[in-house]
Give the backbone structure.
Amino acid sequence: MAASRPARRVGVLGLGSMGSGMAASLVRAGFAVTGFDPVAACAARLAGAGGVVAASPAEAAAGAAIVVSVVVNAAQTEAVLFGPEGCAAVLGAGSVFVSCATMAPEAVRPLAARLEARGVHFLDAPVSGGAARAAEGRLTILASGSPAAFAAARPALGAMAATLHELGDAPGIGSGFKMVNQLLAGVHIAAACEAVAFGAALGLDLARLYQVITGSAGNSWMFENRVPHILQADYAPRSAVDIFTKDLGIVLDMARASTLPVPMASSALQLFLMTAAAGMGRDDDASVARLYARIARLKLPEGSGAE
Amino acid sequence: MAASRPARRVGVLGLGSMGSGMAASLVRAGFAVTGFDPVAACAARLAGAGGVVAASPAEAAAGAAIVVSVVVNAAQTEAVLFGPEGCAAVLGAGSVFVSCATMAPEAVRPLAARLEARGVHFLDAPVSGGAARAAEGRLTILASGSPAAFAAARPALGAMAATLHELGDAPGIGSGFKMVNQLLAGVHIAAACEAVAFGAALGLDLARLYQVITGSAGNSWMFENRVPHILQADYAPRSAVDIFTKDLGIVLDMARASTLPVPMASSALQLFLMTAAAGMGRDDDASVARLYARIARLKLPEGSGAE
């Protein structure tokens, strides 16, 4: 079917583990994908998946009705839009910028306003689900924006997501939901690592502990997903410690701006910072368990992990 | 079948929401249940369920091959065993004491040793699942003890539990697993309440937030179970704040004894203590959300709740 008519053009900015998976899903769905990433190795993934590599955000976005931005944060989003060779200048009226970076709602709104002033739609569309589901086109998207932004983006969203939450008619709302999710995700990873350390200090069989907890009221999505990394001593990053120093940092900034104490998120952030300070910032976020083990001289499973 | 042979006798000590449900499950399974609780209203539940109310732990245990203790903590366990009219004196050799209270392994071991010195088996058998599943005979039991203790207790365990974890051959191991579960459960309740407060501060639709998070990586068993109490403004205690000031207090004591820092559990304990100090100790543990709401003057759903 894709061959029977001209493929629609989509630009993808940022081709890390999430962006390259999303780009591949778009190619599979019949889109003509042009992507940009400043890291050559990342850009090469897109060529392997059947896309075209561009030399700048502006080149990737030229002629595309939909541009999907999968960069890391607000500063990078501003850069790919309004920095040197940014894409804002080439986006046509009626096209849509789909912003997937995790950032505070307060950072989203002015970027959206600047684009909308040019007649370009902005969809606030942070994602959840990780690299594996990005590659399968089965992400969860937490989206908000004008009806026109949704209408313009919808074909691409369907190719990338299994679940699309339509959360409101203004940019910033989707990012608010995402930050609440990140608060919980970060706290739950830190708690899972603390619980495993506590179990190790008690001399419990940790594989049995995993089995018992995943069937009990103490379970969390993160406990179930991350503790196997500890049991296998595999700290190769699926999601890195540095992601949570960033995301919980945003949560703490937002909460402080609202004069809201968030002691759970605060404790979790300190643990991620300690883990990063101990040299494990680029390792898997389950490395918080190795921090506890080092501090308290506990024995965790050993393997050929990243340490 | 229960009528075709003499019903086996089981004593149940402690007839609160958990104990009365477990006693009712034992009655349904054909056991002759005699129970004791110092609170008359609790004891009355057993009569309604078809059991016999005794005037003391010793009277409840007389002639029983299995005694199930569903009291709150180590001090109450010691009292029903060795206090005035305690049951230790009447337990026959070869009978089994099934201890379901949540307590530190270090508290379990000496109680078990004192009973075993008398020829009475001790099964360390803390439970998980809550009052509703206790009433259905569908608890999870985290058990450890000698093979003889398991063999003696097994008929009653099957009547009370859907899942029996056999975790080791010595008392204390089951309680260790339970305390790890309680660490996670307490942290996850506090995190769920903090996340809802954060969402309220951002002006998000809280019912929608529940829907989004329960389908995302930020989910936990406790978020899914407790947040509906907040959404319905129903703080009638299914499990009270005071349970977690107790259980996280045990976790903190145990961790300190092991020289293990547990900052996540520590922050959660402080939140439960603040909530109890603010007058909500006997309300549902989701009341931590009301603490945040009071401190930060946030609007949560209102109802005819306990406040």
